[in-house]
Design brief:
By secondary structure, the chain is α+β, with helices and mostly antiparallel strands. The chain folds into two domains: 104 residues; 190 residues, Heat Shock Protein 90. Helix content is 64%, strand content 14%. It has nine helices and seven strands, in the order ααααααβαββαββαββ. Strands 2-4-5-7-6 form a five-stranded mixed sheet, with helices on one face. Helix 5 runs antiparallel to helix 6 and helix 5 runs antiparallel to helix 9. 20% of the residues are buried.
C-alpha cells in the first residue's frame, strides 16, 4: 500500500474516480430513456473533459506556464475552454433532444455553469501537476542520495583497503624475515582476502557468510604471525543463512584490537572475538588487553571509517559501545541485518 501511495499515477486514478463517478451517478436519469445514450453521454462528457485537462497538464503548464510564457498560455487555455464549453453545450442539446426534452432552457444560466464546472477541473489539473512535480523531485533527490551514498561508500573502501593491506604486508614481511615455513600459507590467505576485497565487495551488501570467511582468514593470518606468543580466541555462534551485511564493516574492530593490543604486548597478550548471529541480529564482541602506557586511540583510520559507514548504512539500526579499563579494551557492536 505504501508503494502505491508513493506512485503519482495512483493519485491520478483516485482523483478521476472520485470526480467522474459522481458525474456518472448524476446523469443516471438518462438510463431510463436509453442506456446507449447514457453511455455515449458519459463517454463524450468525460472524454472531452479529460482531453482538456491533460492538454493543460502535459503541454500548456510545463511548456508555457513554467517558462513564464503567460500570454500564449492563457490565450490557448481560454480558447480550449471556450471550445470545450461549446462542445458540452451542443452535446447536452443532442442528449436532451433524443430524450424528448424540447422545452427551452436558459442558455445564459447554463453557459456560465459549464464555464464554472470546467474551471474547477482546470484547477485540479494544476494540483495534479504540483503532485507530479513533487514526485519527480522526490525521485530525483532519492537518486542523488543513492549516488552520494555509493560515492561515499567507494571512498571509504578506498581508505580501508590500503590501510588493511599495509598491516597485512607488514605481517608477511615479518614472516619472511624469520624464513618461516608458514609464509606460503600466509600468502594464500592474503590472496583469498584480496580476491574478496577486490571482487566481492562491489555491491552495497554482501553475503554474511563470505564476510565471516574473510574475518577468519584475517584471524588466521594473525595466528600465524603471532605463533604461541598470544592467546587468540574466535567463537562463532548462531546460524548463518541468507543474511546480508555491508562489506568490511566488522573488520576494523578486530584489526584495531590486534594493532593496539596483541601487537604491542610481548607476553600475556590475548584477544577474544565472539560473533553471535540471531536471525536478523548480529553482535560482535571484541576484547583485548594492552600496554598500560599504550594510548589506544579510538580515532584511527579504521574506526573513523567504521563510524562513517555505520552512520551511512545502519543509521538507526546499530549500537557501538566502547569500554576501556586500565589495561582492558572492549568493543561491542550490534547490527540489525533485516
Amino acid at each position: 500500500m505504501k508503494k502505491l501511495l508513493q506512485n503519482d499515477r495512483i493519485y491520478h486514478l483516485w482523483i478521476w474516480l472520485l470526480l467522474i463517478v459522481p458525474r456518472g451517478i448524476g446523469s443516471m436519469y438518462i438510463v431510463k430513456n436509453s442506456l446507449w445514450l447514457y453511455l455515449l453521454n458519459l463517454l463524450l462528457q468525460n472524454g472531452l473533459l479529460l482531453l482538456l485537462i491533460y492538454i493543460n497538464l502535459l503541454y500548456l503548464i510545463p511548456r508555457l506556464y513554467e517558462h513564464k510564457r503567460y500570454k500564449p498560455f492563457f490565450t490557448i487555455l481560454a480558447g480550449l475552454t471556450i471550445l470545450h464549453v461549446i462542445s458540452v453545450h451542443f452535446l447536452n442539446e443532442f442528449v436532451y433532444n433524443k430524450m424528448g426534452f424540447n422545452e427551452e432552457r436558459n442558455t445564459l444560466i447554463e453557459i456560465p455553469f459549464y464555464f464554472f464546472n470546467t474551471a474547477q477541473y482546470l484547477v485540479i489539473s494544476f494540483l495534479l501537476y504540483g503532485l507530479q512535480e513533487r514526485f519527480r523531485q522526490k525521485k530525483q533527490i532519492s537518486e542523488m542520495q543513492v549516488e552520494k551514498l555509493n560515492t561515499e561508500m567507494n571512498y571509504l573502501k578506498a581508505q580501508i583497503n590500503p590501510h588493511f593491506l599495509f598491516n597485512t604486508l607488514n605481517n608477511l614481511y615479518a614472516l619472511s624475515l624469520e624464513k618461516s615455513d608458514k609464509a606460503p600459507e600466509t600468502i594464500l590467505m592474503l590472496s583469498k582476502m584480496m580476491d574478496y576485497m577486490l571482487y566481492e565487495t562491489s555491491e552495497s551488501k554482501v553475503s554474511l557468510k563470505k564476510e565471516i570467511e574473510n574475518i577468519e582468514n584475517y584471524i588466521g593470518l594473525e595466528r600465524i604471525r603471532q605463533g604461541n606468543q598470544a592467546k587468540i580466541n574466535f567463537l562463532l555462534k548462531g546460524d548463518i543463512s541468507d543474511q546480508k551485511i555491508v562489506p568490511l564493516i566488522l573488520l576494523p574492530l578486530i584489526e584495531n584490537a590486534f594493532k593496539h593490543g596483541v601487537n604491542q604486548l610481548i607476553y600475556g597478550a590475548y584477544i577474544s572475538i565472539i560473533l553471535t548471529i540471531n536471525k536478523e541480529n548480529l553482535e560482535l564482541s571484541v576484547e583485548n588487553n594492552y600496554k598500560t602506557n599504550e594510548t589506544h586511540k579510538s580515532h584511527g583510520i579504521g574506526l573513523i571509517n567504521l563510524n562513517k559507514q555505520l552512520a551511512l548504512f545502519y543509521k538507526d539500526t546499530h549500537k557501538l559501545l566502547i569500554q576501556k579499563d586500565t589495561n582492558l579494551y572492549k568493543a561491542l557492536l550490534t547490527l540489525d541485518l533485516s
